[in-house]
Design a protein that fits this description.
Blueprint lengths: L12 H25 L5 H27 L7 H18 L1 H26 L4 H23 L8 H21 L1
Helix pairs in contact: 1-2, 1-3, 1-4, 1-6, 2-5, 3-4, 4-5, 4-6
Length: 178
């Protein structure tokens, strides 16, 4: 491995941490909104509670890295707090399947996002790459779980997931910078 020199391209770990922490925070808020609406002991709420616990673990790790590395979190966090909870509650009010379709849409975009980050990181930041790689596998499990539980059977699935995916991509781009 050659050492980095000014002018060489390298991964922007600070921006990656900022957006990943924001994303995991948003995920915890989405699941909180869904769990506030769904019947407590429904099969869907049990799946969502399990996924929410994993997202909280991811968030805790990114919070730790942000503090250790002195990376400022996104200034949009108050917006993600409200928007995430509202998205979760709205999809759960639509139906249990719509709540799962929300997970399907989000995790589809997060898989792409984490894959791109891993490619950009290469060997520049092995600690962050290891965390992203581990969390990506959890997110893929969430995607598979949502689909097995009927996410694709949600009313308006193509339109619903397309809209949520577009919002997710926008949130990613904004959180990298702001």
């Amino acid at each position: 491995m050659t050492s980095w020199r000014p002018g060489d391209s390298r991964a922007d770990s600070a921006s990656m941490l900022r957006v990943d922490q924001a994303g995991e925070y948003g995920a915890t808020r989405i699941y909180a909104g869904q769990l506030a609406v769904l019947r407590r002991n429904s099969p869907e709420s049990k799946l969502i509670a399990r996924m929410a616990a994993q997202e909280q673990r991811h968030l805790d790790r990114f919070d730790q890295l942000i503090a250790e590395r002195r990376v400022r979190p996104t200034a949009l966090q108050p917006l993600w707090n409200v928007a995430g909870f509202a998205l979760g509650a709205a999809t759960a009010l639509m139906s249990e399947k719509a709540a799962l379709a929300c997970t399907d849409a989000i995790e589809t975009e997060i898989d792409k996002h984490y894959s791109q980050q891993l490619s950009e990181l290469g060997e520049d930041d092995p600690e962050l790459a290891s965390d992203i790689s581990e969390f990506r596998l959890d997110e893929l499990d969430h995607l598979e779980t949502a689909r097995k539980a009927g996410a694709t059977n949600a009313f308006g699935y193509p339109l619903l997931t397309a809209a949520i995916r577009a919002g997710c991509r926008m949130a990613i781009e904004l959180s990298k910078r702001i």
